[in-house]
Amino acid sequence: MIFVVEDDAVLRRSLVEFLGLHGQAAEGFESAEAALEAARQGCPDVVVSDVQLPGMGGLELLDAVAALDPTAVRVAVTAHGSVPAAVRAIRAGAYDYLEKPVELERLLRLVVRATRERQSRRELDWQRARGHASDMARALMGSTPAMARVRDRLAALAAAQGEPPPVLITGETGVGKGLVARALHDSRLGADAPFIEVNCVALPVHLVEGELFGHERAAFTDARAARAGLVEAADGGTLFLDEVGDLGPDIQAKLLQVLESRQVRRLGAVRTRPVRAAVVSATNVPLGRALADGRFRPDLFHRLAAITLPVPPLRERGDALEMARVFLADATVRYRSGPRHFAPDAEAAIRTHTWPGNLRELRFAVERAVLLSPSDAPALAAASLALHDLPPPPAPESPATHLVARADGPVEVTLPAGGVAFEQIEKAVLRAALAAAGGNVVRAARLLDLSRDTLRYRIRKFGLEADDG
Fold first, then answer.
1. Cβ contact 320:354 at 8 Å
2. 234, 214 in Cβ contact below 8 A?
3. Which of 64, 136, 195, 255 has the smallest set of CB atoms within 10 Å of its CB?
4. Tally of structural domains, the chain
């Protein structure tokens, strides 16, 4: 709908009739007050208003319409040669302006272009919102107990009062950790709050500090202007650190300082800036192994993993066929392929495949089948899925304690993240010494630089067998 606001009855009627003849629904108003009252009942797509109106002015009307609907296209009509009025209109947010006498063809072109752009923006916003919502729904749907536990944990976190605790999301590649993080953000802070995703793998090593923490002008050679970092951009929202285990040790130390102090200092800056952001991180590899190897700081781990949220792989969810049908319904609409369904052999393949790529692999397999299958074959066969028979990721090994002793050097001990009882280490050392000494207590005591009585006491303590001769 196009509102034409003009106090000249002849001109107003001419503009409305001309637009109507060219397929544009238009309604005329003799005053800004009448147009505004109608806009409150239903905001128009386009408002074409004279600037000089009795009572409320045209620019005031355009501002009021913008308050009702910021996407409404506003066009100002000014007297011939009134450049200052045109400038004021543009500065006030008008889409364009027309001079009197109004050129009807130019008005039509302007209206058509403006309505097309507005419709395109609407469709893009709708598609983004729909894709965002549907992706999150796919990541969290499923009637299995495994997904019910994930949803219950998300609901509990969303209902928690006060400052949101840090959350570490774990799971294999493709399970939807990023979508779960976004769902957690939306439920806790709302979709309008900043959600800053940091892909820790993709950050260039030589730029990672500036990207995360920002920099001041002339902080380094190419720093021509000051720039806020990703951490600072997350203020008031969520900072999502994806694949956090790939951060280098230097950046880990600085990130820990930022998270603990809630302040960030840009490169080249003297003063710090406060940052209040919820922190969500994700990893597809067990951080316990990185802790044991010394590649990840324990203090940062405990700072990030106040609450752990595991996302199960698809093979453990037990709903691969259910999810495949969801992806199939979406793909048939997206590619306009007509109704499709899975043949019995395809359903069997979906149930038995290990899905090492999880939801991402499943979605692409379904889309591949829809695109490559003949249009006259509504039943999708197993061959159309083109599944790759890759072995599932190996189960993570239980962390072990490693001890290496050299005659001319220090003893090196690697402990698991969860720690180990000292008596277990002591017992293992005694076993190794007795084995090396063939079970002879005297020789074993020499190997450990202990007296025979001390070693004998410890052998009895742990119930070990030995030759006391």
1. no
2. no
3. 64
4. 4
